[in-house]
Structures are given as structure tokens and as C-alpha cells.
Amino acid sequence: MSDLMLELRGVHTHIGAYHILHGVDLQVPAGEVTMLLGRNGAGKTTTLRTIMGLWQASQGTVSFKGQWIGGGTGGSSQLATPEIARLGLAYVPESMGIFSDLSVRDNMLLAARQARRVEELDKARLDWIFGLFPALHKFWLYPAGKLSGGQKQMLAVARAIIEPRDLLLIDEPSKGLAPTMILNLIEAFRALKRERTTVLLVEQNFMMAQALGDRVAVMDDGRVVHTGSMAALSADEGLQQRLLGLSLGAHQ
Fold it and tell me: Which of 132, 133, 169, 243 is placed for a possible disulfide with 188 were both Cys, Cβ 3.0 to 4.6 Å?
């Protein structure tokens, strides 16, 4: 296995009186796309939010490139979310996290830590993003709230990659999108794979998971219950049915 970009060991997360994560162990190799799969309510979103410090790990540890960023007995300490982001992580939540009243341009500028004006954005990288998501170039000065659902998702991903990031955490990017938009997203993520960007991707669309994933971790009831190659899971309909209640044939 390649070097680890991210590792969770025995992570527990409580939200109020609710115990959501029950000892999550997860490894994300550098330069690969790791799919985080599971039924609704399995703990996938809580895992991403715990990694980003939005919720604290009450037990266990979260390490990024070998550096502790959260957890510990009793959850006594935790890097703040902005500190975690500055280390090179970007998070695209299921809600997308865009500013509807601002233009596409201003959304992108706000996401760029190294630029205060549009002229200071890395033009070569911006052109690369426009190549992935041509609609963002077309609607550069439009309010983000007027974009279609698929275009908003493209903007959310584009904001996360406006500057190079070591790790992208992305939560259900295909949710509610038309099949053509999902195919566009798959092509964009494939381009990120060619750039050797490390991605931890939560996704319910098994076709998309199969198209993109190198490795897979399956969650159930707040625990990781299976890890392995995405290709092996794709080839084993019995395992799919047992872990996810589906078969690949039903999702092609």
C-alpha cells in the first residue's frame, strides 16, 4: 500500500446524547480515491465532519500525513477546522457550502487563501478548472443561486480545488443530479485522479463509486465493517448485497 494520507484509529464521536461513531478505523492511501460507502445513517457524514473538526472525536485519534489533528482520550483537544484546512484538506459537504447571493467568481475568490483579488488567482489553474467545468466559465458573473443543481455541485468542487489540496473530502456529490450531470462529475473526478489528488468520497451511486474508486471502506452502525479494493467489491454481487443491500447489475 502507498503512504497514508489520512488515518483514523478507534474514533468515537458523540453528538449530544447520541453515540454516532463506535471505534472507526480508516486508512486513506495517498494519491488514490477511497470510497466511503454504507446505508443511510451508517455514520459516513459524521466521519467526514469529525475529520474536519466540525465535530470532536470523543475517543481515538485522527492523523493527517502522520500528524495528529484530532481525538484523544476524552476528546481533550482538537485542532480547529480552519487550522485543519490550512494543512491542506478541503471539504465539500452534502449541502455544497456555496454562497447563493454571490457570483461564481466571488465564490471562487473566497475559497482561495492566497488571493485577495481575482487578478491574483492562478490563471493556469483556473483555466484547468474551466476545462473540467465549462459552465463555471460561462456563468462566471452569475449569482451562484441561479445555477442548476449540477452546476452548483461543480462550483462546490471547484471551490475545493481552486488551490492545490492534499486531500479532498466530498460528501455525496451526485445526490439529486441528472445522469448527464453525474457523468460530467465522473469525468472531472477522473481528471483529479490523473493529477494524483487524494480523495475520500462518500457516495450512494454505486456506478459512480465503481467508476472512480481505488479502495473502498463500508460503514454500518458507526463502524467500518469492510475494507478492500473497489474492483473486488464491484465483482462480488453477493458481497454487495450483504454490505449494501444492492447488486451492481441493478445500478448499471
Answer: 132
